[in-house]
DNA sequence: CAGTCGTGGAT
DNA sequence: TATCCAAGACT
């Protein structure tokens, strides 16, 4: 009797070759391109990544180009995609590969694992998918698929860090083409063995699934609960000077680290907009004519919610020295013209605010 | 190791 | 509307 890994691998391969989605990163075997796709896909939906992947590779077609680029260019290409640390780590990773490996992406998981931004999963994915060499990989999809197949009810044993999943995943990719089987496991989780309402009728390994046999597919894996997101109310200030708007680069650590945003100021009891005093304290610019918008911009993060109250203000004439020519990036500040988007990291929340303010 | 880190789609 | 959570890595 074949063991479980072989019984799963046998139907998974043909199923994947027939039912796989046509995705841009499946049309290449270039390890760098696959690496980029894996980083973009971390915690991010396929539909979202598709809008960025091609453009990114056009701009940074190989390790050397990415390694030689300025970080701001990389963040500009990543703008709107979220989890911006990934972009920084990918950039650092390209420099690492350029310096340590002559620009050639390593073909084994152990060496890949040393690249900034490449964790256990991504190392396995690049090895299996790009090099077609067996290396275990367990992401959220694989963890869910393997948890259901084995009807694992213990939450600690269900998640992607569970040792049992890694052992089984290794055996599965060793039972045939790692390139095919690695993607087959994830594709099954993404399209059939979905978190909600799995399509067990379409599953090629239904006969091996203990959760299905016991009718437990809806309760495995167990839903994990999160704490409530704290809500923060902030003024989002458009400081206008010489027809331009002030953007500030956020702190190098924390939320939206190093990304460019409107100045944000804690909103307390005031209703008519941030006070000139608070704006001056936050930006160093004296302002007048503050005008608050009626509706806030709501921006939801994983662990908090921002209620952003946009308001416009005008720098006072005494502060208009050099206003005409001051369009460059100086000391974490940037004065942009309406519609202008400099090649720096600009998160979605900034775009939402600029749109609300009509800039 | 539990918390942090974006955004958007589905229910 | 509220909640979940998606091809995780890092601290």
From TrEMBL:
Record-listed E.C. numbers: 3.2.2.31
Record-stated family: Belongs to the Nth/MutY family.
Taxonomic lineage: Bacteria, Pseudomonadati, Myxococcota, Polyangia, Nannocystales
Enzyme class: hydrolase
Catalytic activity: Hydrolyzes free adenine bases from 7,8-dihydro-8-oxoguanine:adenine mismatched double-stranded DNA, leaving an apurinic site
Cofactor note: Binds 1 [4Fe-4S] cluster.
InterPro entries to which the protein is assigned, alphabetical: A/G_AdeGlyc_MutY, DNA_glycosylase, Endonuclease-III-like_CS2, Endonuclease3_FeS-loop_motif, HhH-GPD_domain, HhH_base_excis_C, HhH_motif, MIG/MutY
Keywords: 4Fe-4S, DNA damage, DNA repair, Glycosidase, Hydrolase, Iron, Iron-sulfur, Metal-binding
Its job: Adenine glycosylase active on G-A mispairs. MutY also corrects error-prone DNA synthesis past GO lesions which are due to the oxidatively damaged form of guanine: 7,8-dihydro-8-oxoguanine (8-oxo-dGTP).
Cofactor: [4Fe-4S] cluster
Pfam family membership, one: HhH-GPD
Superkingdom field: Bacteria
Record-given protein name: Adenine DNA glycosylase
Residue intervals of the HhH-GPD domain: 40-191
